[in-house]
Every structure is written in structure tokens, then in C-alpha cells.
From TrEMBL:
This is Urea ABC transporter ATP-binding protein UrtD. Residues 50-290 form the ABC transporter domain. Residues 19-38 are annotated as: Disordered. The gene is urtD. One of its GO terms (molecular function) is ATP binding.
Amino acid sequence: MTPDLMEEGARRYAVREAAPVGRTESGGRAAGFSRPMVPGEVDTTHGRILYTEDVSVSFDGFRAINKLSLDIAPGELRCIIGPNGAGKTTMMDIITGKTKPDAGTVFFGSTIDLLRYKEPQIAQLGIGRKFQKPTVFEQLTVYVNLELALKTDKGVKASMFFRPDSEQSDRLAEVLRTIQLADSVDRLAGNLSHGQKQWLEIGMLLMQDPKLLLLDEPVAGMTDEETARTAELFLTLKGQHSLLVVEHDMSFIKTISEKVTVLHEGSVLAEGTLEQVQNDERVIEVYLGR
Ligand SMILES: Nc1ncnc2c1ncn2[C@@H]1O[C@H](COP(=O)(O)OP(=O)(O)O)[C@@H](O)[C@H]1O
Ligand SMILES: [Mg+2]
């Protein structure tokens, strides 16, 4: 079998497995029967898009994540802060399947056990991740970058004959407006500013309409104006998508945040509004050092 076919098969399997009719978290009791699920849909009827409980992972005996528990609501924009080495990136690695934890539970919605899936399947299920550095195709135009993001079949032949259908074209136009690059469709991505490249990459994620977006230090290296525009962008995405944002820039966090989670030594140290966590003695101690 070709890798493409295998990938396609894996994707279909993931989607089918994701929505087993009647199978429930409660071990197969009837709850699922009265609520037939659409294949590929994430079940958020219990008010959560992402749920982790007591997740731990060690690297060579060092516990990078230590009984981490998180509960993210559908449409929520959650900010995660914490000193260097707190485990923020590792947390994202676990959610996206890049790293498998030694212990704990990770659920997408209330029925999808993410620990059963590999990284590409998790992306297909609707979890998009933005790494720190922009990874757009510099030699291609903004438009083509977004178009490429639509393709599920990356085979050469499929790519050559790929044309977006009208729904996809509409989506592309909408994403271009959202990321404020509608005037730059024909520019080469390599000629964009750092901030614009970051927005383009977010746009590429949006083309797949992810339910949950993970963003690791999205405004690092941006100008103040770019940072302000990114805040606006995230506020428009909130509600339609759930966002998990890791950032060090406190003024940015202040603009976008509702609930803030402080991570320290792989665990949740504090949770609340930015003001609440900033006034928490333990948080102050961690940030100022002992
Ligand atoms: N693949 C890995 N192998 C070994 N150690 C790792 C690995 N990934 C992360 N770590 C360690 O885990 C800790 C948490 O790292 P990280 O999640 O990158 O923190 P943060 O993103 O909060 O700065 C650090 O001490 C880091 O060195
Ligand atoms: Mg990090």
C-alpha cells in the first residue's frame, strides 16, 4: 500500500473510532444511544473540549509533567503562563500526540481518548498546533500557502489537480479577512513581516477548521502593533474555536485573557483571572525566585 493510502485509511479509522455510536465514557452504558453522534464530531455536551487528569511524563527520571489536570470549555480562550521549564511545551506535545505520557488521562470532548491516537490522527480530529517559529512556504504566495493547507491528500498527482471547491474558496476568502492578509494574496510568504508570517500560519491552521488551537508563544518577536493585532485576532477566534495560548508577554495576556493557568514544575500552581494569579503568593514566589 502507498503511504498516501495508508494515511487516508488511518484518517478514516480515526474519524470512525472517534465517534463510536453508543460507546460512552461511562463504560458503555446507554448515554450515547439517545444522542447519536455525527462521525468526526467532538462531543462537548458535558461542557468541555479538552480534559486532562493526573498526566505525568518523565525524561530520564526528570518529571517534566507531574499530575497535570486541565479542563477547557468549548470556545474558551485559556492562557497558560509559567517560568521556563515549567512544562508548557511538553503539555502541548502530549495533547497533540507528539509525546505519550507515562500516566494519566487526556480526552478531547468527553468521548475521544487522545492517548489512543498518533500525532497525524489527532490533527485530523481537529486539534491544530502553532509552533513558535513560523513554518510557511516562503517561495509560495499567501494564497497558495492557504490553498495547500486545505489538502488532505499530499500526493504529487492529487496536488497537481487540486482545485478548491466553492465552499473551500469561500473559506479561504474568510480566512484571508480574518488574518488581515486579503490585500496580500499574491505576495510571496517570504516577503511578509514576521507578524504576517505568524498570521499566515494561523490562517493555514484555520483552513482545516480546528476545534482546538494550541499556540506556543505566538507573539514572541512581534512588534507592539503586531502584538495588538494578534490579540484582536485571537478575540475574534474565541467562541468559534477553543484556544490554548502559552505566552510570556503579560500585557498581551492581559488583553486577551479570561482564565489563566499558571504551570510550575509540570503541575497547575494556580488558576484564575490574571489579577488573581498575579496576586497569589505562590505565583509571586515562583516568578521572583526564593
Ligand atoms: N524530549 C525531552 N527530553 C528530555 N527533556 C525534556 C524533553 N522535553 C522537555 N524536556 C524537559 O522538560 C522540562 C519542561 O520543558 P518545556 O515543556 O519545554 O518547558 P516550557 O515550555 O514551560 O519552558 C524542561 O526541563 C526540559 O528540559
Ligand atoms: Mg516552551
